[in-house]
Amino acid sequence: MDELLKYQEVVEIAKKEIKFRKPEDYKNSKIQLGSCGLWQDGDQINLWTYWQGYQLKDIDNKGVDILLVGQDWGNPFKEEGQSIRERIQAIQDNKIAKYIEENEYISPTDNNLICLFKEAFHVNINELNPEKRLFFTNYSLGYRQEDTSETGNMTKSLLRKDSDLFDMLVNAINPTIIICLGKITYEVVVNKVVHDFVKQLQKGRPFEGIYYLSCRDRDVPVYGVAHCGARGISNIGNDKAILDSWIYIANKYEKMKKYH
After folding, report:
1. Which is deepest, 79, 110, 152, 192, by most CB within 10 Å?
2. What whole-number distance in Å separates Cα of residue 204 and Cα of residue 215?
3. Euclidean distance between the first and final Cα of the chain, in Å?
4. How far apart are CA 241 and CA 74, in angstroms?
């Protein structure tokens, strides 16, 4: 990619491409990805961006501090996700401003993410404008279709279907650092295979790599951490080690900001 696009230009390209992508080109043996009406009706790159990112109206000029990247948003057609879909719709309609409302039940994954950002970066990601400029997206910009499971069975080859769109996005929003949730997410972002992912994370150290911004001619530090869902935490088996990885990233980030 040679052209630096504005964020909303990237969103429109992604919506058109995924809407008209052939189903047989966007699947594996267990997952069928496709478009999603709720996402198509909005103005963000990913439904997760309605948690952190959508409020940054000056993103083309100021970029973001931390880009958090997951695998995929999940299945927006499942009944269990109705409440979050209703909140996203309300945000799109300018009726409410929060992805997660106060004092409501939230998933263990989201709760762990809240705790990690609070303990490591000292920011409350339930606030609309935390002290850091945060942006959440999934690498895959497709959505699991009705007969597909909510989680699991994602592959690197399926994630890479959206590599060009991800590259456009990262160049547009110009993050200071990137944090990847899970091994295969990290591998597709840094474009390399890593070994002993769990063993290193058990020692409290994230994986470290770079992402080259072709349109800006600079490298972005990339960190690979455990997914903060039940399976990822179970694999590490040590809450302290997970937090230590995030604290390590936060310390590196603060040193970068100090000298730039």
Report:
1. 110
2. 34
3. 27
4. 27
